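Onboarding guide, step 5: your first structure request.
Type a short instruction followed by the sequence, for example:

Predict the 3D structure of this protein.
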Amino acid sequence: MTLPRTSRIPAVRHGVGFWIVAVTFLIVMAYSTVPTPLYPLYQQRDGFDSFVVTVIFAAYAAGVIVSLYLAGHVSDWLGRRRVLVVAVLVSALSALLFLIWQDVPGLIVARLVNGASIGILTATATAHLSELRATARPDENAIVASSVSGAANIGGLSLGPLIGGLFAEFLPAPLMLPHLVFLVLLLVAALVLLTVPETVQAPDPLPRYRPQRLAIPGRSKHSFVVAAFGAFSAFALLGLFTSLAPTFLISTFRAPDHLLAGATTFAVFGAAAAGQLLLAGLRLRVQLTIAIVCCAAGLTAVAVGAVLPQLGVFLVGGIAAGLGVGLLFKSSLATAGALADPGRRGETLALMFLIGYAGLAIPALLVGVALTLAPATAVLLVFVALVLAATVLAGVAMRREAGR
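The system replies with structure tokens like these:
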């Protein structure tokens, strides 16, 4: 893809650029989860079952994983701004596909393309935010940039379902209008990004392209593996609420309201984002202790709420668990950033996101398959038990590493 020349476009200050990238990060991540409460409408229109929903969701996750492997690291030598613009334009392409190709194959392709945009974006935006903030405020603790990055990532994921639910419940053409609105937002964001300062000096000549090296940083490999397990476990829970929350609300709680489906996912992801920001000042070991307690208590409440069934208990448990996995994921990301070599930060973060999104895709797809064989409540209980064990073990291991 040929990008516009940007050398003559006046650049904003690094501090302003930091917030432009953060807001763009938020918008792109939000659009990636807008379809969550719309899946029942697609099911009603086209008559497919829950397994097809998981296939559509898995296409998104596959797009993320493949693009992370192929392009998540290229901003280390092509430049952060250029790669971010490409990511936003790819997201805009997915919105266009949603508008013009509306049957099941079209949904799968649109979600695959949308996932590709996220894979290109996440590590690049995270690295760019860190570098912009370090230039704008060199004496500031790096945890601030990490917290804003994590909040934009998880906060965007939380806003998308709420926005989709509002469109589905109160506005006309809910399968068209949200994609049109975000298409405009994404195109505007791509233009504004052109004013953001570049933070990477491109080598001359450019190195030969190669896919992402699945290499663990040389320093403290054990710490990186532990953090990666934490990211995988955290995203496994988030994948449940991103892909199948509306299905469980209908089958288990007899609650088909589209806004409720969006609000449920928003509450879980919103708790994850809020925890990252509000608890950023605490020591890492304290944050991980809170994460362990919240994951254990929250997932237990999710299981109890499903068995009774009591929607309120289920929602409160999801919010508590969301707070826990938000802290768990942020700690994983901070560990990866601290261990990365400066010249390979984008590559290291891309690997961490690749592992995280594998946690988002694989368990959710297995849950979709299980739903064709067993009752929804039984599937949910088994999934919750496995994620509870994984998140608590990951939190304990990361806390021990932090103590060292």
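Each response can be followed by summary notes, for example: The longest helix spans residues 104-136.
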